[in-house]
Amino acid sequence: MQIQGKATRITIYIGESDRWRGKPLYMALLEHLRRGGAAGATVLRGSAGFGAHSRIHSTSLVDLSADLPIRIEWIDQPEVIDRLLPEVHALVTEGLITREEITVLRYAAGRPADPLGQPVRAIMRDGVTVVQPDTPGDEVTALLLRRGHRALPVVDDAGRLVGIITDGDLLRRADLPARLGLQGELTAAERAGQTAHLHELRADQIMTAPVVSVGMEESARKAAEIMVKRRLKRLPVVDAEGKLVGLVSRLDVLRTVEFPAGAQEVQSAPPRAGASIADLLEPDPPTVAPEASLEEVMAALERRQQRRVLVVDGRRRVLGIITDGDLLRRVRRAQSPGFLQRLRSLVTGEPAGDAAQPDASQTAADLMTTPVVTVRVESTLQEALHLMLENQIKRLPVVDGEGRLVGLLGRGSLLSGLLAGDQ
Questions:
Q1: Do 14 and 70 have their domain in common?
Q2: Cβ of 57: how many Cβ atoms within 10 Å?
């Protein structure tokens, strides 16, 4: 696995004498992180220090048996941190845990001659959280939210893959009012209503089956080709017996391609073919003027069944972007009845029903996020990929030399272009 761009560092301060079930606590923590698929962690032994109990410890000859400070540094992707951190909290009953956002400039063990020729097992994420067919729906959703995942494989008692549950499955089959990435923006009443309904459903009533998967010994190139052809964001990875061993995502493949030393969302159109940004971009993305009303913003999104609209001025220069997350955070829902149903329909494609006109006082300028990361149309695919990974964005507005909007470049199309250039 490769990490690049935005990442999270967890630092844990404990004592050398701290134990867990008879073994040093720092070893128990390392074993938990390794089993969970963490990218890596380092244990550092301090020469002196004091902590919560105000005792001074040092490595002087007099104090060789003292409880010296131990610092554990763990750097990983935010979703992996969110998945493994609860158990870390449970293990560290005394100590200090800090969390900070960092930028990873390089993390690699050496570049393979053919990055996409590597077996999928070399770039996949193992230690995948799974559920069984009879797992209640509310537990499924709680796991997804608590661990920061966007998909949960469903396995039988033997560990064989039988299904997968994604954002779209929950919206279509469990009637969630908003996708997982926006759950934090719901009110307490809205969350309580969905929990009661989810408890009545099981995982096998929500999941997609059969599942498109890839073998662990297949090449990363094969996994990428499947994702491009089937318009998928991730693939479960199975062994020769069909047992789940990991997950590989479109982002994992892109990291593999981009890294110089190594590697949920409606796809509104099939990935485009070509070898340049001009070939691959979507030429006519939804746009609105800064003075556009909330109704005009919603209408622009609904016409194209997309989750983002660009705000441009009279010369088509990009001023901002409005995503469904921006809308859920900033729209005054009390003044916009039916808004949540319309927002949900952008993902499900289902009619939103008879929704009242939203609040007319809010404009695109009030709702947009700015500034916007853009890419020049003459840039290389590698430059576009670097921008996507560094800024953790899924789609890049493409502009000409004067900053005017030319189109929108998505991850799927970019992956298609990189594969074409790899042939």
A1: yes
A2: 19
The side-by-side arrangement of strands in the sheet containing 308-312 is: 287-288, 308-312, 318-323
pTM: 0.63
pLDDT in tens, 372-422: 999 999 999 999 998 988 888 889 999 999 999 999 999 889 988 888 876
Q: Cα separations (Å) of 222 from 47, 120, 246, 302?
A: 50, 9, 16, 34
d(C-alpha 163, C-alpha 152), whole Å: 9
In a domain, 370, yes or no: yes
The residue type of 382 is: Q
Residue 372 structural domain: 277-323+360-422
The pLDDT, as a whole number, for residue 261 is: 36
Calculated CA dihedral for residues 242, 244, 245, 250, nearest 10 degrees: 100
Contact 399, 318 (CB under 8 A): yes
Say which CATH number the domain at 305 has: 3.10.580.10
Element (H, E) at 189: helix 188-198
In terms of domains, do 290 and 241 share one?
no
d(CA 166, CA 155): 14
pLDDT digits (tens, 9 = 90+) for 62-109: 444 456 889 999 998 887 888 889 999 999 988 899 999 988 766 655
Assess if residue 306 is contained within a domain. yes
